[in-house]
Amino acid sequence: MATILRRPQNLARSSRQLLEAASLSQTLARRPAALPRPLYAYARSRKYATQPEQNGKDKETGKAPKGTEHLYNQDSPMSSGSPQPPDGDKKPPSEDQSGYTKLSTGEEKALEDVFKLVKKGMPASMAEDIDRALERIKKEGLPVELRETIKEVQAEGMSPARAAKLWRLTTQMARETAEKTINEKFESQKEEPKQKTAENPGPKSSGKEEGGKDKKKSDMFTNVTEIKFDLSNFLVSAFVAYLLYRLVVPTENSREITWQEFRNTFFDKGLVEKLVVINGNRVRVYLHRESVASMYPESPAANPGFYYYFSIGSVEAFERRVDEAQSELGIPSSERIPVSYHEEGSWFNTLLAFGPTILFIGAIMYLSRRASGGAGGGSGGIFGMGKSRAKKFNHETDIKVKFADVAGMDEAKTEIMEFVSFLKEPGIYQKLGAKIPRGAILSGPPGTGKTLLAKATAGESGVPFYSVSGSEFVEMFVGVGPSRVRDLFANARKNTPCIIFIDEIDAIGKARAKQSFGGGNDERESTLNQILTEMDGFNTSEQVVVLAGTNRADVLDKALMRPGRFDRQIQIDNPTMAGRKQIFAVHLKNVVTSEDLENLKGRLSALTPGFSGADIANCVNEAALIAARGLADTVKMTHFEQAIERVIGGLEKKSLVLSPEEKKTVSYHEAGHAICGWYFQYADPLLKVSIIPRGSGALGYAQYLPGGGADAVLLNMRQMMDRMAMTLAGRVSEEIHFETVTSGASDDFNKVTRMATAMVTKWGMSDKIGYIYYPDGSESQEAQLQKPFSEQTARTIDEEVKRIVNEAYLQCRQLLTEKKKEVGLVAEELLSKEVLNRNDMVRILGPRPWEAKGDFEKYFGGGSPKQAEEGKGPNPGGIGDSGNGPNGPAPGSNLPPGLGRGPEEPAPTLYKMLEERSKAWRM
Ligand SMILES: Nc1ncnc2c1ncn2[C@@H]1O[C@H](COP(=O)(O)OP(=O)(O)OP(=O)(O)O)[C@@H](O)[C@H]1O
Questions:
Q1: Tag placement on the chain: N or C end, fewer CB within 10 Å?
Q2: Is 452 in the pocket of ligand 1 (CB under 6 A)?
Q3: Which domain of life does the UniProt lineage start with (predicted)?
Q4: CA distance linking residue 63 with residue 72, whole number of Å
Q5: What is the DSSP string of 457-488?
Q6: Kind of pairing, strands 339-342 and 686-690?
């Protein structure tokens, strides 16, 4: 309603449709016309009339009985008040043969007024349509049944049954109109060619005429049925019909009278047809309308749908009075006026009763629509819930990824290649009786290219690719998951050969619980069961391959992994140095750089140990963004370096300003780390040390190359001890150089403790505990609830961990005490420059006394004793070169002369200690 009011053109359009519909309707009476009751009623009124005056008025005077004039006279206070049409306009609605009733002249006039209103502001063509529609309505009228229903609505109010009927009748009328219009147009077009043929009888006019006729009719139908009969149109049409009728006929449809008025005016005159007691307190009077109309045409009671009513105190008293009155009039008991009883609720009450139910249903519909609409599924509200959400990619248009775009992971590619050749040439396998593997699980850390590999498989084999995430099967409604799985596999079977890729399959494929507490996982488990069943359901010749990706292959249900389901498990780990190089090669193709590509790839891959493919892609993109921000022409090494730092440490926190004391503490802390990294043989080589706060919460950081840039898989005890000592160096340096210590080392302690605990409980590196593995809480739920060792063992573990950490501490303290001066120098330099790189360190401390491993020296230059002997300084274009000369302090630097020239011996006491320890630890 609100929409209609807000948009007058809607009302206009709807009324036009309706009016056209009404006016163009074919005269098809679907039901026989109502029984001609008037005759019978008239007879009765004659029979029981005690004062049978003609037309209810005094024969001589032609007036209503005294005191009841107001019931007949429109001018009296009780009259309907609607202006009376002139005498000539008083024709009652008449019914024609076709089941349509004509409008009375008054009604026609009222309609004209309405139409005038509707036409205002309308385009001329629409106004013409409306005029034409009005003419048709005037000519043909409205269908009887529709009119009767509208009368009922006026008399007794709207009810769901009547609303439905009103709707049905209006739509029926509209449909009939459409049919009629089609026929009319068709007839007229049929006439045209006839005329044409008559005028110009061509030779082609005979043969194909019949077939042509049918085609024309269907064309016509298409044209005419452009009028849309959708739900909202019908509703609006019905509503407008009702509105119009309310405008045409008087709005008043009932009036209260007293018992005396009832008796004198109607009852005693035999005009009463029946009485209906409503809700035990009101009586509705049904009159013989025709008799009333013929006696008193001015009375509103002559209008269809108008009723008088009077109130009663009690039903018994009313019945007694009616009996007495009828006895007085001498009406025999067999012909007495029928009295019936009705209970009626108001619309408001009905609405109140149904309100909560309607609200509830509405809320469910709304929620389900949102749930399904949000994902863009467009799957039709609650009824589309069970439809699969898998996105289908067309190999021809959508999947452009090929194996060449997936760098590294050669083993994984070889494994998966088999699926490609199966999908391309199934015959080779089938003829030898080989069963085709059903699917593979690609597992590995996030961003390692599992999805990419699955896409490439589809791209290479040139088949459709269905991609869906495990979480999309899970919905709040029970049974949706399994039904989506069924739908997905059914779709896939229709489009064989194809690949289904279920990403994050652990969302549904987790191992089923042995006992389910509270049944919370039932839905997930039944989804998993459905997947198991569907995979079993393939026959071996069906070319549907299911690939699944997960970061947690360890938690998956064993049933998923058995042969015949996901036959293969392909592990994809973070790339090695060589893999990173290849991935950089793929992504560097997209950026503009003038650096030597081979060298750039090598350096970047050495700088990014532990990076996944996604990290590398991000890093390259980030470098391009940084370069663009600086309006550079090409992406340079420094941009890549900044990007890597950003990926590792987060954004620089420029807003965080440290006090001079804090800055000094941070410098000495970081210098401690740097010195340890420089002098411990097995520590990871230092790349950079910085005291610029970064987003990850660190106030400063020292960057090392784990494993010296080589892909170290194993760590030996020496490396561990050096690493732990290096980690503790921040706090030790604070202890040596300041009177008090700060809270800044807590993260270092965390790392050291975890490493020492692992050495004792997992790696068999403690004599007292021996070669035993104790799982921790993150590995097993049982270990969370109960420690897997006794109190006594717990105490021993604690002691051992403490001992190892103490040893690392002593090792570190020993070195930093011996190298106190160097720590001071590095810290002061750091304080003034904020960032020191490897070249700065070489300049301050001389070349590192130990050989670096792997490709480190190739890409980052030396500083090693060997290089120093060969007279090679660090690579002048090395990473993070701060512009200082390779072998001496930069001009303006506060380094004392003589430092930074040539290698230095590591601390002698440290050697002694390491030797002793190696004996004790059988290193
Ligand atoms: N081997 C690779 N070669 C080239 N690009 C890669 C490689 N691995 C990852 N990438 C890049 O990383 C992006 C993300 O990879 P992908 O989505 O395949 O990771 P994933 O392993 O499926 O991650 P997740 O486990 O989080 O779903 C790719 O779009 C691609 O740009």
A1: N
A2: yes
A3: Eukaryota
A4: 9
A5: HHHHHT--EEEEEGGGG--SSTTHHHHHHHHH
A6: unpaired
Question: What domains are there in the chain, each with its CATH number?
Answer: 2-37+76-192+213-248 (no CATH), 380-571 (3.40.50.300), 577-649 (1.10.8.60), 660-743+817-916 (1.20.58)
pLDDT at 396: 57
Strands 142-143 and 254-256, how do they pair? unpaired
Catalytic residue among 475, 670, 734, 904: 670
**Probe ligand 1: pick from 401, 442, 448, 572, max atoms within 8 Å of CB?**
448
- Unique residue bearing structure tokens 């009103």: 166
What's the sign of the alpha-carbon dihedral 286, 288, 291, 293?
positive
Tell me the three-class secondary structure of 514-572, residue by residue.
Answer: CCCCCCCCHHHHHHHHHHHHHHHHCCCCCCEEEEEEECCHHHECHHHHCCCCCCEEEEC
Task: Tally Cβ neighbours within 10 Å of residue 744.
Answer: 18
Amino acid in the structure at residue 408: G
Q: What confidence tier does 757 reach under pLDDT thresholds 50, 70, 90?
A: very high
430-463 per-position pLDDT tens digit: 788 877 777 888 988 888 888 888 888 888 877 8
Distance (Å) from CA 651 to ligand 1 centroid: 23
**ipTM for the whole predicted complex goes beyond 0.95:** yes
The Cα 153–Cα 165 span in angstroms is 11
Kindly state the tokens that stand for 684.
């990871």
CB atoms inside a 10 Å sphere around CB 216: 15
Nearest atom in ligand 1 to the alpha carbon of residue 572 is 21
Question: Of 381, 560, 544, which is closest to residue 470 (Cα–Cα)?
Answer: 560
- Ligand 1 centroid–CA 451 distance in Å is 6
Residue 14: per-residue pLDDT: 42
**Residue matched to tokens 């995430």:** 469
CA contacts within 13 A on the Cβ side of 167: 15
Q: How far is CA 715 from CA 116, 413, 759, in A?
A: 94, 29, 11
Strands 835-837 and 686-690: antiparallel
Dihedral of the alpha carbons of 673, 677, 679, 682, in degrees to the nearest 10: 140
pLDDT in tens, 287-317: 888 888 877 777 777 777 778 889 888 888 8
Is 640 in contact with 584 (CB distance < 8 Å)?
A: no
Query: What are the angstrom distances between the C-alpha of 894 and each of 101, 399, 827, 830, 832?
Result: 111, 60, 11, 11, 9
The 3-state DSSP class for residue 501 equals: strand
Helix, strand or coil for residue 115? Answer: helix
- Distances in Å between the Cα of 423 and the Cα atoms of 463, 499, 816 are 8, 9, 64
CA 3 from chain center: how many Å?
A: 28
Residue 827's pLDDT band, with cuts at 50, 70 and 90, is very high
Do the Cβ atoms of 301 and 71 come closer than 8 Å? Answer: yes
Distance CA 573, CA 91 (A): 93
pLDDT surpasses 90 at 3: no
Place of tokens 């411990």: 680
Q: What is the value of pTM for the model shown?
A: 0.53
Ligand 1 and 450: CB distance under 6 A: yes
Instruction: Give a three-class secondary structure readout of 789-806.
Output: CCHHHHHHHHHHHHHHHH
Token reading at 288: 């013989």
The dihedral over CA atoms of 292, 293, 294, 297, expressed in degrees to the nearest 10, equals 120
* H/E run at residue 688: strand 686-690
Query: For residue 125, how far is the Cα from the chain centroid?
Result: 44
670 is catalytic: yes
pLDDT digit string, tens, across residues 363-386:
887 776 665 544 434 444 444 555
Is the Cβ atom of 470 under 6 angstroms away from ligand 1?
A: no
Residue 547 burial class via C-beta count within 10 angstroms: exposed 0-12, middle 13-18, buried 19 and up: buried
Element (H, E) at 500: strand 498-503
Phi, psi dihedral angles at 559 (to 5 degrees): -65, -30
